[in-house]
């Protein structure tokens, strides 16, 4: 897949960092406060060695301690420690708030984009990988930013501040420090080049593992029924090993930062100690000043070590951010800005010379024509893969036609807002879906302002009121699509009740009663018959006995209409429909 390509570091990580910083712009005031607190904290920290040096000079001679001068120095040190601690706490508070606000905005934008993405993107990407981008990858960004904001601020300020203080003490020793420390930058550069690619691979591998787990847990019954546990375990172990291997490599390279930069820091400290000692012997600096200089040398090199670690951590965050921005920047559905809002549909549908395919190399629907009158019940039948459900996707504008046009109430559906078009349809699919919430909330999903009486009336019309009342909490029972105590048939009845409540102008029923027992199916079919009176209806059914009363039956084969008419005329014709029908009732 395209998102598995490893982007060039310079081109990709720089752009990604720029996009992340753009998300921080609304919080510039907090950023300025954080920088102010960082400066105060660093200034207080850096002034402490000056006082320590003065203190050392006051007590350096045995038996000759000037307590009058020492006490103010100690008090000053205590004040500096208190100011440093307070400012570091306030700085951390600001940076945390910036980070979590940025991450919140990023996650909100990612979820908003999911709602605007064309169905083709959702269908062509593993759902677990999409979930991993919105949840796990954004969390990785949070971890990287938290470390980055705090340590980059203080680190850069410390480096600049210590240089200034060291220059005021002795220029020659300062040059020793400045000449050796660039080695840390070369080390950090080498490590970051390798870690970005490895962390990107790690994010991709993590997404694949999430997809596999989501697939196996979501279809656990099928896995168990076909004794697929061993193969599933092998697939998981393979994906887990791939993630483990790339993670080990990423951590190995990132862990090189600390020991190598510490080695450079040791060289700096040693160089300062040797040169400083000779300078002190010659009277160039006092012992207290040498003590201050050694402290500064340690403080100067420490941020290089921390910043190198931050850069490594940021590589992981930027690799994750790259995947998140890939999702956010995906082309969304064509906008509805200049489209019409239609609230009153007359129910007529015209499909004119429509061609469509999910992939160019595999034609599916070609030159399809269909005219449906207001209030007409149209059944679409045919073998698996002939394009029945695809036609429903086109009618609902989940996909746009490749060529030709579909008109509803005389208007091309591409000129109608998707929201108003879809509000004109009531759809019950073979695959049921319920949100996590109460039964009442699920029935009222398409009409949240429905009254209690309307919800109960819809439940009664769908023949699910009786089983709802038998539940411990009745209509307040919490259910979910993935876990609940109700059966698949009961879930389908709730989905039917959802449509019964909205009473739309047009209906789409795609095997709407496939999970319901025969007796209940007859009752629901009768309820649908009442609901369909005066309403345009499209019915997809594999059980042809359920569509005998349809006004018009469209028989599809390989994306084309091969026959059309009512049940009686098609049976008399003795063609493909009669063959399909008789094959289902051969035993009778």
Given the structure, what is the number of helices?
Answer: 20
The CA-CA distance between the termini, in Å, is 51 Å
The CATH homologous superfamily of the largest domain: ABC transporter type 1, transmembrane domain
Order of strands, main sheet, comes to 6-9-10-3-11-12
Share of residues in helices: 55-70%
Q: Would you tell me the structural class of the helices and strands?
A: alpha/beta
In one word, what is the shape?
elongated
Mean pLDDT: 79
For the secondary structure, the number of strands is: 12
Secondary-structure arrangement, i.e. CATH architecture of the largest domain = Up-down Bundle
Radius of gyration: 35 Å
The portion of residues forming beta strands comes to 5-15%
**CATH topology-level name of the largest domain:** ABC transporter transmembrane region fold
Task: Please describe the biggest sheet, giving its number of strands, its sense, and whether it closes into a barrel.
Answer: 6 strands, mixed
CATH class of the largest domain: Mainly Alpha
Question: How many domains, in number, for the residues?
Answer: 2
């Amino acid at each position: 897949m395209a998102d598995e390509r490893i982007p060039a570091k310079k081109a990709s990580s720089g752009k990604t960092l720029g996009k992340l910083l753009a998300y921080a712009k609304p919080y510039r005031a907090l950023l300025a406060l954080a920088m102010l607190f960082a400066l105060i904290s660093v200034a207080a920290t850096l002034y402490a060695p000056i006082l320590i040096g003065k203190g050392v000079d006051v007590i350096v001679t045995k038996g000759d301690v000037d307590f009058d001068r020492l006490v103010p120095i100690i008090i000053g040190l205590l004040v500096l420690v208190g100011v440093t601690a307070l400012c570091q706490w306030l700085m951390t508070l600001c940076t945390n708030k910036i980070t979590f606000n940025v991450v919140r905005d990023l996650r909100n934008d990612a979820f908003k984009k999911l709602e605007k993405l064309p169905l083709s993107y959702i269908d062509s990407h593993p759902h677990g990988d999409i979930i991993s981008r919105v949840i796990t990858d954004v969390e990785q960004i949070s971890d990287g930013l938290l470390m980055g904001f705090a340590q980059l601020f203080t680190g850069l300020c410390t480096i600049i501040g210590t240089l200034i203080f060291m220059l005021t003490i002795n220029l020659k020793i300062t040059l020793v420090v400045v000449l050796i420390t660039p080695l840390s930058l070369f080390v950090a550069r080498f490590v970051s080049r390798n870690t970005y690619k490895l962390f990107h691979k790690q994010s991709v591998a993590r997404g694949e593992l999430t997809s596999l787990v989501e697939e196996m847990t979501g279809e656990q019954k099928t896995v168990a029924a076909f004794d697929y546990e061993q193969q599933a375990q092998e697939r998981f172990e393979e994906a887990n090993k791939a993630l483990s291997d790339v993670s080990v490599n990423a951590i190995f390279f990132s862990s090189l930062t600390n020991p190598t930069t510490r080695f450079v820091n040791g060289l700096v400290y040693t160089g300062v100690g040797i040169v400083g000692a000779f300078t002190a012997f010659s009277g160039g600096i006092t012992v207290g000043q040498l003590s201050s200089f050694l402290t500064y040398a340690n403080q100067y090199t420490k941020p290089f070590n921390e910043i190198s670690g931050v850069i490594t951590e940021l590589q992981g965050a930027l690799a994750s951010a790259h995947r998140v921005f890939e999702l956010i920047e995906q082309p969304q559905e064509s906008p509805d800005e200049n489209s019409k809002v239609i609230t009153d549909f007359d129910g007529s549908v015209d499909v004119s010379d429509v061609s469509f395919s999910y992939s160019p190399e595999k034609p599916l629907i070609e030159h399809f024509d269909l005219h449906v009158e207001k209030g007409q019940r149209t059944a679409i039948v045919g073998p698996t893969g002939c394009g029945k459900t695809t036609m429903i996707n086109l009618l609902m504008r989940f996909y746009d036609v490749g060529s030709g046009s579909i008109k509803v109430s005389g208007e091309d559906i591409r000129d109608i807002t998707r929201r108003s078009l879809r509000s004109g349809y009531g759809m019950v699919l073979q695959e049921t879906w319920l949100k996590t919430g109460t039964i009442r909330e699920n029935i009222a999903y398409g009409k949240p302002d429905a009254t209690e009486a309307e919800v109960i009336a819809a439940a009664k019309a769908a023949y699910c009121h009786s089983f709802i009342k038998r539940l411990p909490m009745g209509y307040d029972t919490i259910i979910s699509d993935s876990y609940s105590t109700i059966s698949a048939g009961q879930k389908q009845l709730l989905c039917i009740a959802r449509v019964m409540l909205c009473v739309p102008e047009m209906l789409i029923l795609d095997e709407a009663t496939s999970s319901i027992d025969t007796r209940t199916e007859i009752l629901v079919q009768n309820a649908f018959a009442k609901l369909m009176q005066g309403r345009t209806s499209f019915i997809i059914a594999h059980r042809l006995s359920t569509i005998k009363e349809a006004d018009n039956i469209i028989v599809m084969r390989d994306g084309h209409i091969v026959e059309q008419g009512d049940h009686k005329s098609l049976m008399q014709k003795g063609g493909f429909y009669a063959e399909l029908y008789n094959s289902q009732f051969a035993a009778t």
